[in-house]
Amino acid sequence: MIITRSPLRISLGGGGTDLPSYYQKHEGFLISAAIDKYVYINLHDTFVDYLIVKYSKMEEVRSIDEIKHPIIRESLKLLGFDARYLEIASLADIPAGTGLGSSSSFTCSLLKALHTHKKNIITPADLAEQACHIELDILGEPIGKQDQYISAFGGINCFTFCKDNRVKAEKLNISQETLFNLEDHLLLFFTGYSRSASNVLKEQDDKSRNNDSSMIDNLHFVKELGYKSKTAFERGNLEEFADLMNVHWEHKKQRSNGMSNDHINTWYDIALKNGALGGKLIGAGGGGFLMFYAEDNKKLRHIMAHEGLQEVRFRFDFNGSKVVTTS
Known about the structure:
- By secondary structure, the protein is of the alpha+beta class.
- Helices cover 42% and strands 25% of the residues.
- Strand 3 and strand 4 form a beta hairpin.
């Protein structure tokens, strides 16, 4: 039996500039952090001459082409598996469609398990690139590379997405004191909405490919906010980071009408009046998690609970995709 896990993530600046339609022309930059919420893969050999796949559904197939789950199907193909004597099951701390990069965490965790089964050693960079290859190149998803890279690497990283498709990963230069303060004052609240990011991201992707000036200018501005956030972290100025979050959110909403809704806007305003210094919606928008940097955690927790929003407490993960156990 092999059990692997890969962390989910939150974006801390520059989000949206990791799509190829933008960075291949202009270079992208963002800051991302892995959190201690995971997608797990359990893989083990069986005694039956077919493949068992368990996720939100269950499949029993005799050929890989029969697998309906696209990521599982293409991952097995990529690594040269056949559909015999194997069972694959997945489990997640947070449901899909909540903006924390669960799809890419699933891909990284699955690939890590498959490589471990073949006794392959794979670096975080190679793992991330394989996950990107499956999701972007093979399946044609209109997504970026942030989720795969932060899930594979873990920690808090600055990623530069180069025009030639290379990705440069650099650990954020943040003091331990600032790190602890950031962990203590960042809060996540589930909006109650789960959604697919594909439609919102496809709109951004199409506009970027067509050189839509408003979209390109928006992403240029957000990239600069990413650089400013990096400087704020390095200086230990978390109040400045909180201000930048607010600016980021206002510009993020301009990318698509599906980025927010009346409920989210109301909760956001309530949070800023009750202890939050800054915040934004995590992910492509339309649902998922609201993240705030709060000066008064107790006050914010109380009002968000009163509004019916569930908090998910977290810490940062510094392991990335890893093997939990083999037997």
